[in-house]
């Protein structure tokens, strides 16, 4: 595509804003087009849609400052107390559940990311006969409702006579995370130029050296993305956990159980803190990437 | 995100190079894991669904049998729940599609000129994921409870009848399902629309197609992979969900879905065969529906 | 409303005072252009000169900031793309990937509700000799075949005006020459008005009746290809359309028919009829193939300009001709193309030579004294480097 087509296509939609920008009235003919609903309807809709998506988040955040006594339903005044003394309620049950969720998330993410990355590399780089069967086996967990996954595992643990505890939760979470890891890492592996590995071998690298010095560093962004996704899925999972947790509490399970008698504001504090942490992390990554692109564009 | 992966599954691997023992070593642990913790559980689910109560046994004690009567029993007892599950999931999928398409179009097509804005809007789309799914749903319950500002105002304005409720109604459950699965719909739609080559739209317009016709004949068909992936990613979890329909969240006694009865049978009534039979029915129905849907929409290569 | 009838024949196109500004730059400044009905008109220029923007304005894909567009005398400035009796063969072809070839070709006819769209689409495919592939998908066709389908999809609508946006750019050289001839034949057959945008001067000259050379959003010169080549008006045209040896100097004297220009040590004569300026600082030039080499100083005469002596810097052989670069002190490098007919002198690198050309072959530009610099071709290292950087940035933004 020649440069001007690209520039024109990119700038095409700016035609109307450019007139106001230059402060000059067009002396050309009056153009009735693109002045209709279309020009502002979609942006306006987008704003409303985002407001809608963020309402419950804002609500949860605001009510983390509620000076509530037990249930956190009516607004009773502003306080920082809940943020400062998160673990003081109900003998620290919220914090214990949160800690469990983090441990489960970290452990199952490590296992799922390792196993999933290995599968992804094998799927892209090697030829073998059972490929379609394996692809199906990887696709099915993503297409199965969580309640079926949870009940299935619980039925198996019951049949084998395994007591439900933290281990069974980790086993369950690892299972449903693997497929997502494979999909994410696979995209990265297939976008990798095989010539890079060939160059590594050409420059006297042994297979192991080529893997650890060329392939792995290039795959890192994909692996990190997969691990973050895996952690997020595990951390927020309730349905599968509920079937396989026995008496162990996780954060979502704690919320579910206390829903009937009222959720303490401390739960809102933890959810809000996690939200803010994740948001800062993701936005920071996006902004720094945009800055890098801009810097590169300025070079030369 | 991986949800987009359904839409990008066509990323062709470069010609795989060789068969090797390394491939086996790489595959074996993960595949073995999935066989042990995904495949065999499905089989034990199937076996459980055919179990019969232990003679002189306690509640929750069963033995292996070929008691297909279990399926007849759950179908008779729970057919409204089964219908409700698929009805609610279908409604939520349609609403989520209607909600997400314009949003994804704006992010993926209109915002292309501003890459930073585009990625920030994507962050906003997935932002609900960063806060607990259950808390989000509870927030809606409280925002739209009978005593809430929204509902009382609507009643004061006579837009709602004095006895009207929101929570506990089928509408509330569908609303919750829609809200919770919107990101699953928006992301694959975005991936498809972001790759939409606008020159096809220009060509359509050059060939005398009205903007509406361009949308119908070119934009929609070209974004079909995203539509299929998004509807699947919304429909499947929505059909199996039991949080939104739960009485403590947005549901009521008359809104229970299959997930709720599976949970109740398994964890409360300890009627494992019934729960297992319902799970098998749910899974089979979804596989059949998905199969038909993917065939009809002509996007088999997605899987 | 969409145009419901076929155009009987091509219509003429008129652009009046067109200006197109994008935030930060002006793509087109004050363009006036009239293309007569039934002609094959080429808009030639380097990338970024505004030629594609002009085409998009005519197609209705962009709106002009100022000015009017008339097709067949009717003002279409305010109409949208789908309401204009204009079709485009896109550079990328833009064949709809989700439709078969025949559906692609019939698309426009169906939108206009013209009877028997499939019959007419098959006829158009027969014209481009691809009817046997009607049921295929665009992805299953080769680049040349896709190009022909794109052409069929446009001409099947019998537009008053057919726009061609570098339609041959993606094809290899041999196929390109073949398609050039085919396009020309089809244009003569269907009698439509063709507006062809290209950066390939050879393509423009072989195909078009009239060529307009565009630079920096304005038309530098317009005319028949031979005219433009023979008598370029500006240094840009002289070097974009073929190559030229240019000399900046001062008019020293004039007769009734010619001017004399002092350039360094030499005195060059240019016929008045071939010079756009007759006094002051001027730039004169001559095409390299009109220059001959001599090992001894040729006799000065009123019919011949002589520049030299100089030294041969480089000789490159290209089959039918040989290209010499001669460094003449005070004049820079003079380029000479000699036909390998066996009659010229045989010189090598380092030899001392004289250059000369017939007075009637020289030309005088409309520009004043310009730096006698050759136009940087697209394959120069700087433009390649710039392109690589743009690609990299685009890739990063995507990833």
Automatic annotation (TrEMBL), chain A:
Keywords: Cell membrane, Membrane, Transmembrane, Transmembrane helix, Transport
Topology within the bilayer: Multi-pass membrane protein
InterPro entries named among the record's database cross-references: Bact_Polyamine_Transport, MetI-like, MetI-like_sf
Biological process annotations from GO: transmembrane transport
GO cellular component: plasma membrane
Localisation: Cell membrane
Residues covered by the ABC transmembrane type-1 domain: 98-287
Record-linked Pfam families: BPD_transp_1
TM annotation in the entry: 40-62, 102-124, 136-158, 170-189, 210-235, 269-288
Family: Belongs to the binding-protein-dependent transport system permease family. CysTW subfamily.
Record-given protein name: Spermidine/putrescine transport system permease protein
Lineage, top ranks: Bacteria, Bacillati, Actinomycetota, Actinomycetes, Micrococcales
From TrEMBL, chain B:
Subcellular location: Cell membrane
Record's keyword terms, sorted: Cell membrane, Membrane, Transmembrane, Transmembrane helix, Transport
Membrane-related topology note: Multi-pass membrane protein
Gene3D superfamilies noted in UniProt: MetI-like
GO BP annotations listed: transmembrane transport
GO cellular component, one term: plasma membrane
Leader peptide range in chain numbering: none
Domain spans labelled ABC transmembrane type-1: 82-293
The keyword Iron-sulfur appears for this protein: no
PROSITE patterns, per the entry: ABC_TM1
Transmembrane segments: 22-47, 86-108, 120-139, 171-193, 214-236, 274-294
Cited InterPro entries: MetI-like, MetI-like_sf
Coiled coil feature spans: none
PANTHER family referenced in this protein's UniProt entry, alphabetically: INNER MEMBRANE ABC TRANSPORTER PERMEASE PROTEIN YDCU-RELATED (PTHR42929:SF1), INNER MEMBRANE ABC TRANSPORTER PERMEASE PROTEIN YDCU-RELATED-RELATED (PTHR42929)
Family label: Belongs to the binding-protein-dependent transport system permease family. CysTW subfamily.
Protein name: Spermidine/putrescine transport system permease protein
Organism: Agromyces terreus
Species classification: Bacteria, Bacillati, Actinomycetota, Actinomycetes, Micrococcales
From TrEMBL, chain C:
Purpose: Part of the ABC transporter complex PotABCD involved in spermidine/putrescine import. Responsible for energy coupling to the transport system.
UniProt GO cellular component terms: ATP-binding cassette (ABC) transporter complex
Keywords of this entry: ATP-binding, Cell membrane, Membrane, Nucleotide-binding, Translocase, Transport
NCBIfam families for the chain: potA
Pfam families assigned to the protein according to its UniProt record, in alphabetical order: ABC_tran, TOBE_2
EC code: 7.6.2.11
Species in which this protein is naturally found: Agromyces terreus
This protein's name: Spermidine/putrescine import ATP-binding protein PotA
GO molecular function: ABC-type polyamine transporter activity; ATP binding; ATP hydrolysis activity
Enzyme class: translocase
Family membership: Belongs to the ABC transporter superfamily. Spermidine/putrescine importer (TC 3.A.1.11.1) family.
């Amino acid at each position: 595509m020649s440069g001007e087509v690209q520039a024109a296509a990119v700038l095409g939609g700016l035609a109307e804003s450019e007139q106001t920008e230059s402060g000059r009235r067009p002396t050309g003919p009056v153009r009735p087009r693109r002045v209709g609903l279309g020009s502002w309807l979609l942006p306006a809709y987008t704003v409303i849609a985002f407001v809608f998506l963020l309402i419950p988040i804002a609500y949860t955040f605001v009510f983390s400052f509620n000076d509530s006594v037990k249930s956190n339903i009516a607004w009773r005044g502003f306080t920082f107390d809940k943020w400062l003394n998160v673990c003081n309620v109900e003998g620290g049950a919220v914090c214990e559940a949160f800690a469990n969720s983090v441990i489960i998330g970290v452990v199952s993410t490590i296992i799922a990311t390792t196993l999933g990355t290995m599968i992804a590399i094998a799927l892209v780089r090697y030829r073998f006969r059972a490929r379609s069967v394996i692809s199906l086996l990887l696709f099915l967990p993503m297409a199965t409702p969580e309640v079926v996954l949870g009940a299935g595992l619980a039925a198996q643990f019951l049949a084998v006579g395994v007591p439900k505890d933290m281990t069974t939760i980790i086993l369950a979470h690892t299972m449903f995370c693997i497929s997502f890891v494979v999909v994410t890492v696979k995209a990265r592996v297939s976008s990798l130029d095989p010539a890079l590995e060939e160059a590594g071998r050409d420059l006297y690298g042994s297979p192991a050296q080529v893997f650890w010095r060329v392939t792995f560093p290039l795959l890192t962004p994909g692996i990190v993305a997969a691990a973050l996704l895996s952690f997020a899925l595990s951390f927020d999972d309730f349905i599968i956990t509920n079937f396989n947790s026995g008496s162990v509490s996780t954060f979502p399970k704690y919320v579910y159980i206390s829903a009937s008698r009222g959720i303490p504001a401390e739960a809102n504090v933890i959810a809000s803190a996690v939200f803010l942490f994740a948001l800062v992390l993701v936005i920071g990554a996006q902004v720094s990437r945009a800055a890098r692109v801009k810097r590169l564009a300025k070079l030369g | 995100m991986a949800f987009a992966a359904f839409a990008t599954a066509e990323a062709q691997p470069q010609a795989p190079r060789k068969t090797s023992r390394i491939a086996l070593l790489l595959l074996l642990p993960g595949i073995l894991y999935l066989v042990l913790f995904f495949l065999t559980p499905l089989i034990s689910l199937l076996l459980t669904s055919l179990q019969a109560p232990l003679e002189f046994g306690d509640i929750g004690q069963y033995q292996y049998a070929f008691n297909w009567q279990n399926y007849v029993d759950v179908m008779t007892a729970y057919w409204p729940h089964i219908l409700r599950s698929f009805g609610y999931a279908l409604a939520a999928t349609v609403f989520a599609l209607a909600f997400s398409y314009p949003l994804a179009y704006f992010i993926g097509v209109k915002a292309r000129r501003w890459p930073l804005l585009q990625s920030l809007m994507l962050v906003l789309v997935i932002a609900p994921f960063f806060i607990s799914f259950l808390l989000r749903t509870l927030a809606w319950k409280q925002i739209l409870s009978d005593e809430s500002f929204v509902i009382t105002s609507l009643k004061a304005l006579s837009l709602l009848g004095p006895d009207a409720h929101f929570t506990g109604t089928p509408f509330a459950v569908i609303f919750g399902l829609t809200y919770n699965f919107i990101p699953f719909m928006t992301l694959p739609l975005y991936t498809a629309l972001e790759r939409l080559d606008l020159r096809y739209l220009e060509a359509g317009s050059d060939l005398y197609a009205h903007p509406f016709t361009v949308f119908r004949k070119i934009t929609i068909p070209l974004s079909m992979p995203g539509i299929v992936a998004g509807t699947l990613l919304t429909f499947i979890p929505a059909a199996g969900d039991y949080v939104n329909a739960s009485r403590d969240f947005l549901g009521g006694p008359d809104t229970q879905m299959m997930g709720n009865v599976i949970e109740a049978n398994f964890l409360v009534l300890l009627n494992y065969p019934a729960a297992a039979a319902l799970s098998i029915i749910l899974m089979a129905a979804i596989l059949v529906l998905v199969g038909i849907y993917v065939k009809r929409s002509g996007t088999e290569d997605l899987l | 409303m969409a145009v419901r009838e076929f155009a009987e024949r091509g219509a003429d196109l008129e652009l009046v005072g067109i200006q197109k500004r994008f935030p930060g730059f002006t793509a087109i400044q004050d363009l006036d252009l009239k293309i007569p009905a039934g002609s094959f008109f080429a808009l030639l220029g380097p990338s970024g000169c505004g030629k594609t923007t002009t085409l998009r304005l005519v197609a209705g894909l962009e709106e002009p900031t100022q000015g009017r567009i008339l097709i067949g005398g009717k003002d279409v400035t305010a109409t949208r793309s789908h309401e204009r009796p204009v079709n485009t063969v896109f550079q990328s072809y833009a064949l709809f990937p989700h439709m078969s070839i025949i559906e692609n070709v019939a698309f426009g006819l169906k939108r206009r509700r013209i009877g028997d769209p499939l019959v007419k689409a098959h006829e158009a495919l027969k014209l481009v000799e691809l009817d046997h592939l009607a049921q295929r998908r665009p992805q299953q066709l080769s680049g040349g075949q896709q190009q022909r389908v794109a052409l069929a999809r446009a001409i099947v609508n019998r537009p008053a005006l057919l726009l061609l946006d570098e339609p041959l750019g993606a094809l290899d050289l041999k196929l390109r020459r073949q398609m050039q001839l085919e396009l020309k034949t089809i244009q003569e057959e269907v009698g439509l008005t063709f507006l062809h945008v290209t950066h390939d001067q050879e393509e423009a000259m072989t195909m078009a009746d009239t060529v307009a050379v565009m630079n920096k959003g304005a038309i530098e010169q317009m005319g028949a290809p031979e005219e433009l080549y023979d008598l370029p008006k500006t240094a840009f045209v002289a070097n974009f359309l073929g190559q030229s040896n240019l000399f900046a100097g001062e008019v020293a004297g004039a007769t009734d028919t010619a001017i004399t220009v002092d350039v360094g040590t030499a005195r060059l004569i240019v016929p008045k009829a071939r010079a756009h300026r007759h006094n002051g600082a001027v730039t004169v030039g001559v095409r390299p193939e009109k220059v001959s080499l001599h090992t001894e100083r040729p006799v000065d005469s009123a019919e011949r300009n002589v520049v030299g002596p100089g030294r041969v810097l480089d000789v490159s052989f290209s089959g039918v001709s040989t290209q010499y670069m001669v460094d003449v002190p005070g004049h820079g490098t003079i380029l000479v193309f000699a036909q390998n007919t066996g009659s010229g002198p045989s010189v090598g690198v380092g030899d001392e030579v004289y250059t000369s050309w017939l007075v009637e072959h020289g030309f005088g530009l409309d520009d004043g004294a310009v730096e006698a610099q050759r136009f940087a071709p697209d394959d120069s290292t700087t433009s390649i480097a710039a392109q690589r950087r743009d690609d990299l940035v685009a890739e990063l933004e995507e990833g």
